[in-house]
Amino acid sequence: MSKIFISHSSKDNDFVKRLAHDLLTNDIPVWLDAYELSLGDSLYDKIFTGIKESNYLIVVISEHYNSSIWTSKEFRAILAKEDKDRKKYLIPIKIDKSEVPLEIADRLYQNFELEYESSVKNLTRFFKREDFSIKSIPIEKRQIILNFSDYTEVDIALIRSILSDSHLHRNTSILKKQIFFNGYASIDKLLAIGKNNLLSIENNKAILEQYDKDSREIEHFVDYISKGVLLMLNEFKPNNNTQLISISIYWYVKMFMNMIYSIINRYLDKKQLKDLNIEDKKFYSLHFLSSGSFSAFYDVNGYARLDVFDKNDNKIYCSITVDEDCYAYKELKKLPIPITFSEALSHDLMYKYLIPQNVYSKIVNEHQTVLMTNFKDYLVGLS
């Protein structure tokens, strides 16, 4: 199994997670220890097994890397691997003005300090010349690392790649432990800032109790994101366009991230919001799908409610909120008789509205909602 190990200081995690995501998006198989380690694991065993089993080893040279005792052990282990196999595996990259270690001072390195995008392209071209591809790693053994392009919008390029591959291996399931979101650390950081704000307020017991309740709700939302994305990756691949399912994942994640940040914003002051560049952003609460906030969230003129039900027994599966300019709603307004999905079908109806909202309901109300995957059996009507 061909893969690339990234040796780095934990203090450079933000850079490394971005790099890992961008390499994975370009079908380059990387191994990142931050995502493989679980409570109780031996740090030493996991990392050195990763080094041993990797075909190339990227060393992220920085001030933090050069001053870390732990990364010096990793570095010596990489050199020992080269010495034992009589082959060069180590690829140095620089992210600041730090000196390259003397042991590899004669090697060419990629300088990310000067320019990030072109440096990623150079690394990608190198690995592709070496015939490295994520296709060599089974779906069930890959790390799926998802970045947020801003606070609420997940980058779906990697999701599309995963969906395309999993579509070809329909009997293989992705596991929850394979999915990692890079945006969660910022959530924890902002919650800590918010709590510090509350600690400066006198008689704050009631407010702190509400904060604790909100923090627990955010943890539920984080869990719902992973469960919902996993459900869509595994359950919709046999019957649907994989490119369009990635749109459903985008809107599903955005729904929950909006709820998360609508809670966080309650605990930040105006200066903090401005410093974080989110003072002008609007985030919507849990009930936005059945309110006027829907129009603002989806950037549409208005909204309408539709019922989706079984064409055989008229059992309602779910009610969904859609854009009032949606084709199905326009047709139903002309003649309010339920229509089949093939008649109502539009990409927006299914992938932007129905699937994200149905999965949302399935995850939050597990025993009360049927997951809809076989769309030819459904009718759509006005609520």
CATH level-3 fold name of the domain at 4-137: Rossmann fold
Weakly predicted, low-confidence segments:
37-43
Residue share in β-strands? 5-15%
| Main sheet specs | 5 strands, parallel
Put simply, the count of helices is 15
Overall residue-averaged pLDDT value: 81
Shape: globular
Query: Gyration radius, to the nearest Å?
Result: 24 Å
**Cα separation of the termini:** 52 Å
The CATH C-level class name of the domain at 4-137: Alpha Beta
The CATH H-level superfamily of the domain at 4-137 is Toll/interleukin-1 receptor homology (TIR) domain
What is the structure about, briefly put?
With 383 residues, this protein is of the alpha/beta class. It contains 15 helices and eleven strands.
What does this protein structure show overall?
This protein has 383 residues and is an alpha/beta fold. Among the domains are: 4-137, 3-Layer(aba) Sandwich (Rossmann fold), CATH 3.40.50.10140; 288-382, no CATH class. It has helices at residues 13-25, 33-36, 43-53, 63-67, 69-85, 116-129, 157-168, 184-199, 205-235, 242-264, 270-275, 293-298, 327-334, 341-344, 347-364, and strands at residues 4-7, 30-31, 56-61, 90-94, 110-111, 144-146, 179-181, 303-310, 316-323, 339-340, 378-382. The strands form three sheets. A five-stranded parallel beta sheet has the order 2-1-3-4-5. A four-stranded antiparallel beta sheet has the order 9-8-11-10. The protein has a two-stranded parallel ribbon with strand order 6-7. Helix 10 packs across helix 15. The N and C termini lie far apart (52 Å).
